[in-house]
Amino acid sequence: MSNCNIPREFGPEDALAPDAPKFGEAWHAQVLAIADTLVTSGQISATAWAETLGAERDADESAGRADTEETYYEAALRALERLLDGAEIVASGDLKTRRDTWERAYLATPHGAPVELTAGEK
Amino acid sequence: MTSGTSFDRDKLAKIHDHLHSHLPPEPALRVKALESLLVERGLVATETLDAWVEAYSEDIGPKRGAQVVARAWLDADFKARLMEDAAQAITEFGFEGKATGDLKAVENTDDQHNVVVCTLCSCYPFSLLGLSPAWYKASAYRARVVREPRKVLEEFGVSLGDDVAVRVWDSTAELRYLVVPQRPAGTEGWSQEQLAALVTRNSMIGTDRDLEVK
Question: Which major enzyme category is it (chain B) (predicted)?
Fold first, then answer.
């Protein structure tokens, strides 16, 4: 039977396709690495992680955002931030301050030099 | 050259520098902030994160699950252990993972097909299959495979006769699933390595069924 006329969203796995890169962006990998490490060490529970990520994905869908790898990992990042803020592990205010400090450090560091924070900036 | 042109050139050079500055994109900056605070507070180690990223970029993928399936085809005792307690059985390979959680193996037969989804988010047996494919995380798959599994499977190229029942397994943070596909005919006497090479990622999720003998 031919499947050609079926309107489809999915397709068979292509055995001949070259291996796609596992992570589109380095930060995608880092978000999952942090989440998995914190679940493994018991800092956050697997259930809380799944539920918070699910809620962020639902919020994306309700808001009509595109359903892509990029929006998936953005939802994962928001879920992680929200969980850590709620568990008083990393307060959202601390995170914002540190984000701004990193931004200044990036902008102030010449090309080619490693971007680092001095003790006073931490 | 007029002074006006010179001013514009300076301005353009500044814009150019800004565009090419190595300021990471916004989410990357937030991840950087989160990671540095967690490291300072002793909650994660940079080396652990680096090792995780390297493992999932290079080593951990569906070939692991394929080894487990091939072993189950060859070794009836192992298969019994896998069906009884899959999380325990995969420790024989060193494939266990905290994020894989408890694991249940579900076996395809002539009259039953199994397919796995996570309707909540994207729970998946990472330590066995590596990262989940994009479609597994997409809301279209999560919603539709529960509502109309046969139609979704048809789109994946799996045509099921009316005599084959479909069971959809919904993963959670605590319990994930591995589909054990059927061993194809014509593979008698094959080694575990040869058999494992036939097992596709999708067949272990359930969006592939009849494995092709190459």
Answer: lyase
User: Is residue A53 assigned to a domain?
Assistant: yes
ipTM over 0.85: yes
pLDDT, tens digit (0-9, with 9 covering 90-100), for A61-82: 999 999 999 999 999 999 999 9
**Portion 134-173 of B in contact with A at CB < 8 A:** 134-135, 137-141, 144, 152, 154-157, 159, 172-173
Torsion angles phi and psi, residue B88, rounded to 5 = -70, -45
CA distance B34 to B52: 17
Task: Please report whether residue A118 resides in a domain.
Answer: no
The answer to whether the annotation marks B6 as part of a ligand binding site is no
Per-residue pLDDT tens digits for B67-108? 999 999 999 999 999 999 999 999 999 998 765 568 999 999
In this complex, which of B29, B38, B154 lies closest to A34 when CB atoms are compared?
A: B38
In the numeric block, which tokens belong to residue A14? Answer: 């292509």
DSSP 3-state of A20 = coil
pLDDT digits (tens, 9 = 90+) for A20-33: 778 889 999 999 99
Superfamily of domain B61-205: Nitrile hydratase alpha /Thiocyanate hydrolase gamma (3.90.330.10)
- In chain A, which residues have their Cβ closer than 8 Å to the Cβ of B173? 45-47, 49-51
Domains: count for chain A: 1
